[in-house]
Amino acid sequence: MKWTDSLDIAMALDEMHPDTNPLTVGFVDLREMVMALEEFDDDGEKSGEKILEAIQMNWIEERE
């Protein structure tokens, strides 16, 4: 997965962290959580606020 795969990342985060409320995760922590995913393979420097926000919004939608 790359940073642009926000929906795939959100689904993976939801599976790995079922007890975590995505609304309570800050962008610094979210970035670390994404980079810790086994399937994730991208440069950590390529993440930005808009990308992290898209991931977080997709994660929230996955919970609904």
Walk me through what this model shows:
The protein has 64 residues and is mostly helical. It contains three helices and no strands. The protein is globular.
List strands and helices in order, with pairings.
Layout: H1 6-16, H2 27-35, H3 49-63
* Total number of beta strands: 0
* Biggest sheet details: none
Taken in chain order, the helices and strands follow as HHH
Count of runs of 4 or more consecutive helical residues: 3
Shape: globular
Strand content: under 5%
Mean pLDDT: 96
Note the gap between the termini. Answer: 23 Å
Overall helicity: 40-55%
Task: Give a quick rundown of the structure.
This protein is mostly helical. The chain contains three helices and no strands.
Features:
mainly alpha; 64 residues
